[in-house]
Amino acid sequence: KVNGLFSWAIGQWQRWNSVHQAWVSAKRKASYDVVFVLDGDGWYVPSLVFGPPVEGVPLVTIMLRLRYQWDLERQYRKKLRASTIQRTIFESYLRLNWVAAVCVCEASLMQIYRNNDGSWWSRKLHYVPDFGQTPILTNRAEARRRLGLPAEGRIVACVGGLGERKNLFQLFQALGAPVCPGDISALLMGPVAPEFRARLRDGLVDLLLQRRRLFLFEGAYTAEQLSLALSAADCAWLCYRQHLGSSGFLWEAAQAGLPIVGCAGGEIAHQIESLKLGLAITDEDPAFVALALDRATRPSEETRQWRENCLLAGMAHTSTAFGRAVCEVIQEASRSLK
């Protein structure tokens, strides 16, 4: 733990110094009204000791790895590390006069300050939408034909890095549960993590593959392949293990109108529940998960509403929407100086 803390501190200092050196070089070439620096999580702590890495100009940054808000939920108190310290340091950073704004992609974090805090420094916090690639959707039958998937049946999709964090063995167990309808299968697409490869040799996985209940597209994928996978699917699997942050795949699936089957805590669950995008799984029992998959993929008024909600939410979580929101924050910071 001591070595880990030391390495973290050195990394923070090195990144702060890199930002500072870049600023020293940039200010020789032009004058600026405001500066935007990425990855504030990586360098903001030394700012409390050494001052701003960018002197004389208000600074806007974005932070994507703040997690202390989940310490408010009892079930996560033992899983988060030093959340109280992180919150104290972050709020101290917000109080610095030269910090003009901090963008975050966690709506749950914004809700804490919007509902419970009226401090002047909390108004520096701005929500910007997380995003994934925007799929170009095609006819479902055509997408399934091109991917070699069965024309009939229901498909649960999971796209991205395939590893333990995606909690895929829970999905496999659900597919193998006696109560799971036989017409539900899973489509996995993405590079397989080395530590997870052994799990794919499990007897249950072999059985699912043989029965064409599991389709694995291993390796890097293109935007076209992502679009085909989302076009072919009926719902998306985001029931990740110990994952408290957002997910690009969440918004890729939402843009495709796919109901979400997700984890019960963290930002994914917050978005599912607040925007009514699908189901947040509260029980790891395979039979319970199997019934949730059935519910999320079975045509009904409920799934129709989830699809509409996903499409509506997805429109607000594109790269264009993200860029526009960040630019608006920068513009507001610039105007506040005049």
What is the topological layout?
Elements: H1 2-26, E1 35-37, H2 47-50, E2 59-63, H3 83-94, E3 99-104, H4 107-116, E4 125-127, H5 140-147, E5 154-159, H6 168-176, E6 184-190, H7 194-197, H8 203-210, E7 214-218, H9 223-232, E8 235-238, H10 248-255, E9 260-262, H11 266-275, E10 278-280, H12 286-297, H13 301-315, H14 319-335
Parallel strand pairs: 1-2, 2-3, 3-4, 5-6, 5-8, 6-7, 8-9, 9-10
Helix pairs in contact: 5-9, 6-12, 10-13
Short description:
The chain is α/β, with parallel strands linked by helices and 338 residues long.
What does this structure look like?
By secondary structure, this protein is α/β, with parallel strands linked by helices. Helix content is 45%, strand content 13%. The chain has helices at 2-26, 47-50, 83-94, 107-116, 140-147, 168-176, 194-197, 203-210, 223-232, 248-255, 266-275, 286-297, 301-315, 319-335, and strands at residues 35-37, 59-63, 99-104, 125-127, 154-159, 184-190, 214-218, 235-238, 260-262, 278-280. The chain has a 6-stranded parallel sheet with strand order 7-6-5-8-9-10, sandwiched between helices. Helix 5 (140-147) crosses helix 9, helix 6 (168-176) crosses helix 12 and helix 10 packs across helix 13. The chain is elongated, with a radius of gyration of 22 Å. It starts with a helix and ends with a helix.
